[in-house]
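## retry 2 of 3
previous attempt timed out at serialization; input unchanged, resubmitting
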Amino acid sequence: MSQKILVIADHHDGQLLDATGRAVTCAADIGGDIDVLVLAHDGQAIADEAAKLAGIANVHLVNNAANEHAVAAILAPQIVAFAQNGGYSHVLGPNTTFGKDLMPRVAALADVAMVTDIMAVHGPYEFDRPIYAGNAITTVQAPDAQMLVASVRCASYGAAEKTGSAAVAAATVEAELPTHTRFVGLEQAKSDRPDLQTAPKVISGGRGVGSEENFRIVYDFADKIGAAVGASRAAVDAGYVPNDMQVGQTGKIISPELYMCFGISGAIQHLAGIKDAGTIVAINKDPEAPIFELADIGLVGDLFEIIPALDAAVS
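## retry succeeded, writing output
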């Protein structure tokens, strides 16, 4: 039986996010026809960008004033109605903040089981996913007699190439939208630095940085090499940086080509968030720090001496 897969587009400020392309790559591993659903207020530019993703058959654009803000309670009924009417066998979303909020609600409304954090595909309904903070991998078999709702572990997949030319079609969805949930406002950190979850280079600091003021040395070095900036939970809890910078099991799961961490000991929760990184470079004063067990390159030393030396070397 051929699969018919619907990927939910993750977008922000009128731009398609890289996570959507990663979910498309996972969908290609499952096999079958792949469509993308864009739910927006005015999403033509987003849909046109999604149409460039390789392997996409169609992009369906649902423009609705109710979709101006990505409120899961508003989007989920539309996704369920569209997927059921379209006869989709799979509905996939990225495991970003957007997807983690949305996809469980989709599964609940559709009254089906959900598979979270797909990291490898063995068959249309058989997948690997991480458990125990990423320290073990389990293979799960989902029922094939019903629609499968799943989230894709973005760190495990590269984004689909933008070599496609899929058709974009306007669509309408007949779904009863809830009135008990409404958008009130958005508070978010803004930065000119690369996005932490998709950047090819990430520089992180931990408790060893010492203070919010001292974190400036990490920011400056990251800016020098064009890297995103992350942090350990200990640094976040200490108030050095905002929590949207947290990397780890309870923060962002990332897979940069280069990950450099300064003053991070390597708690298991942090290691769970960086295991898929290409090259891990760790700098810590403690030679027994657990981070060195995972690092490809380890340097025992004072970060306040090493960062200026690295800065000078790349000047």
